[in-house]
Structures
1.
Amino acid sequence: MRFNGNSIGVDGFAIGEVVFNTSITGYQEILSDPSYCNQLVTLTYPHVGNVGCNPIDMESFKTHLSGLIIKQMSTSYHNHRAEESLQDFLIRNGIVGIENIDTRKLTLHLRKNGAKNGIIVVESGDIDFGSQDIEKFAQERLSSFPGITGKSLIEQVSGLTEEDCFRELVPNPERKKEGFVVLVYDLGVKRNIVKTLIGLGCSVKIVGPGTKFDDIRTLGASGIVFSNGPGDPEPCTEAIKFAQLAIKEGIPCLGICLGHQIISLGLGGKTVKMSVGHHGANHPVVNLKTGKIFITSQNHGFVVDEQRFAEIADITHRSLFDGTIQGYRLKKAPVFAFQGHPEGCPGPQDIEEIFEDFLISIGQKIEVLK
């Protein structure tokens, strides 16, 4: 399927898995979410860019997506926090983008046929639509793209620092929790996960892939968060091994998004590729214990196969869209996992209780060790 439109970013071409996000707001957080590495993101909301962009709303130290697909870009922006237009943001970050295509038609095609690999080609000095066979040009380059299955992408997106997360953040000293040192295993972590933990009174230390498990003892960690991140979880063998060791040691653990899947694989579970995934800020999730329904932010293309999980875990949350596992806690260990994004950004933060349950388990462990 081919769409013709207008360029809204840099010249050249971009290749990735084409997905769609149904969020109405938060386009800058989406653009800077590391979980979109190697993906072309389609925004279903038709009018994008009206509030501009600013450094504060970045969810990572840089953008990671391959390209952007929208219906229409705003020609002006109005917001007291804005420092540049979306167009300038795309060019400054080297992002290829396209507008004025039928995003509804594209979305319906993806919903029916599943996420597909795609390419955005922009006519430029090196790419002449008049003299070149653009279909052949696109197909040749698209055929070289391996997709996101079977390859670890976390090394491409990790690197957020604690300093990146303190921008515009003033911790409340009255909420400081003594001894609550949380280690964030960076699989492509979003800033707001770290900011939420700091806001809840934790001291946070970020470590990247390749960190040895023995090193966490010198860091004094009382709990570990396995963060969100991009792509297929199964090739992330180092992270899976790290999770296995943490669970064996009885360290309170929380997995978010990709981290949820990493913990699941560490427990002997399996993950499967979804047809179109969950990407948006309006996904209903039910707490199976209380019956309470939350509207959540979601961004994942793989899901945990719940076979045998009932033996070792209590399933705590399910998606009301397709019934897939959204959360669980182990029966015999202080381990929690949630498939969505309790930190939001973009989207609601209704389900921040996920963090609270994790922190309660840390507090209980600290009391035992006194």
2.
Amino acid sequence: MTARAAGTAPDIVIVGGGIIGCALAFDLAGYGMKVELLERRELAREASWASAGIISPPTPALGTRAELGLIGFRRYPELVAEVEGMTGIGTGFVQTGELMAWREADSAELREIQSWQAGAGLQTVWLDGSALREREPALRVEFASGLLTPETASIRLDRFTVALARAAVIRGATIREFSMAQGIAISGGRATGVQTFEGVRPAGAVVIAAGAWSASLSDSLDYTIATRPVRGQMMSIVNPPVRINSVIAAEGGYIVPRADGSVAVGATEEPDAGFDVRVTPAGIAWLVDLVDRVAPSLNLGTLESTWAGLRPGSDDGELIVGKVPHLDNVWVATGHFRSGALLGPATSQLLAAAIVANRVDERLAAFGPERFG
């Protein structure tokens, strides 16, 4: 997107042009750092492209990630407004609210979620009976209760990622697409640059934020980045006979009304697919069955498209964010799995500050790479 003057090495090189890498480029450039980002393809073409882009308040199920979830959720509206204002790129950010729908009339689990969210200062509304049906007429009648979070939004995460990259360029960053990192050059316990097909890109420090592909750089670090790809398949429906008003979370999946009028449905969770991004009949059958169990009238709409993406999982199911143990200036930010959209801006905010201060933020301590030895 832009090129820095010859002979000036960046303070930091980020490997990976998804939501994590681009948000980090934006935040680090905001500190006045000279930032260069390398992406092996075009920006936002992997998990960030495939994502449903749900920006919902965290629940207790996020566990150690819940605080990051709160930071990300609260940051989104202002960050989207800032980035759209800087770049003129529309991100499709729309606050539709989210309805977690339950078949039980008074679910103890749903009440626990409501109590936790209320304690965190989040808006919640309990719905049952006619109120539930009034909010979402497309729901099956078997659903007896629901928890509405009115501030939940959806976003076209690929567009937002590109907007963040362009905003980072406005702040002085350099973005290099189709620049594949082959390894990290190490000397004296420090990274000196990133090896590409064009040669070594010099770097004062390196952040690896390459999603499911982060592990490919392990050998050059003499450290295992314990990521693994998890395929998720989705589909998009247009012209539904009954309007979907909210993001609906139910039966292990989600239905997402988008700003352009389409409705996204997802997603399968396939940890054994490797790096295979094919859409399969079995995957689409699972999605069609999900719709039938939640809002069957959607299956009478028009199937617009299907796709698959690879989420970055980790060996223990947690994020991997922090400094590589034996290297002074190499950081990792990956393993966000299904929460990259929500946690990306929180990860970048805290990690950028940690990199500038050269001190790990205590709110990231649970995700340190050192736990993998």
